[in-house]
Amino acid sequence: MLFEMRDGRTVQVWSGGDPHGRMVLLLPGCPDSRLVATSGVDAAARAGVRLVSINRPGYGASTPYASTPSSVADDLVEVAERLGHGRFGLIGMSIGGTYAAVAAARHPDRVRALVLVETQVRTDEGSVAEKVERYAPEFLRWRAGIVGDDPDDETLGNRWAALLDGGASAALARRSPGQHAAAAREALDDPSGYLRDAALAFSPWDHPPEAIACPTLLHYGSVVDDGTPVAGTRARRPHPRRPARAARPPAPRAAARAVGPADRLRRLILSSLASSTPRRAISVCLHTASA
């Protein structure tokens, strides 16, 4: 569905699960789209949750513009209001976690709880515009290897599906080539979505992690097929003395893998709603890597 925002922009939205349940907003990784949430529709329905995801500016039919994590956070609130929800849980996958964390800090009266999946805090030198220019050549080369010379849906869908690994959910694995192609086009047709995402993700956050007051679950490390964390895995911490690395195009499989099997996603959905979830000291596990 398409929403016209108060400022006239368009935001593309997906909604599934229980239409009468409490809302969980899922923010996909990069480059990826709202359609990654479709793999969680059954888990959301069983949990009594209305699962919603949006395309950030520059993805799919969402209007590209000079967005910031704060402006995307405000979009989440407006979308929730349009759907009749004053409060909601948040799940942020990878780079989507940057936006989710800023939304939780910026709108503490709206966000019930927060789940971050493999989200890192890193910085890179330069302005957002400079980073976009610097990251573009590598991303465009990678994108050309997926999109090719305007392939048909089957060709594009098979290329996109090949990026998924064994950790992808069964729902994603069952998609037809046409469904994979639709997801790929929303993620890749307009490079501005990825490039701004990457530049903002490697910039200081609009609101520091320490400002997050809601219950927060950090989900890091490897999982086995049933979604159970592998023994001994823990939150990854960028070495504080290691220089920040220039961003590399994140593989779409990262966001698909993060969704994981349905039971795992169901636990994440419930965690994003449970106000009794023990609060985690988010700054303990997320360290800004600086040059």
Task: Note down, in words, how this protein is organized.
The protein is an alpha/beta fold and 291 residues long. The protein has one domain: Alpha/Beta hydrolase fold, catalytic domain (Rossmann fold, 3-Layer(aba) Sandwich). Helix content is 38%, strand content 14%. It is built from 11 helices and 7 strands. The chain has a 7-stranded mixed sheet with strand order 1-2-4-3-5-6-7, sandwiched between helices. The longest helix has 20 residues. The protein is globular and about 45 Å long. The N and C termini lie far apart (42 Å). The relative contact order is 0.19.
State the secondary-structure class: alpha/beta
Q: Report the end-to-end length measured between terminal Cα atoms.
A: 42 Å
Mass-distribution shape: globular
- Spatial extent as radius of gyration: 18 Å
What is the count of structural domains? 1
What is the element layout, followed by pairings?
Blueprint: E1 2-4, E2 10-17, E3 22-27, H1 41-47, E4 49-54, H2 69-82, E5 88-93, H3 96-106, E6 111-117, H4 128-147, H5 153-162, H6 170-173, H7 177-188, H8 191-201, E7 216-219, H9 252-259, H10 262-271, H11 282-285
Parallel strand pairs: 3-4, 3-5, 5-6, 6-7
Antiparallel strand pairs: 1-2, 2-4
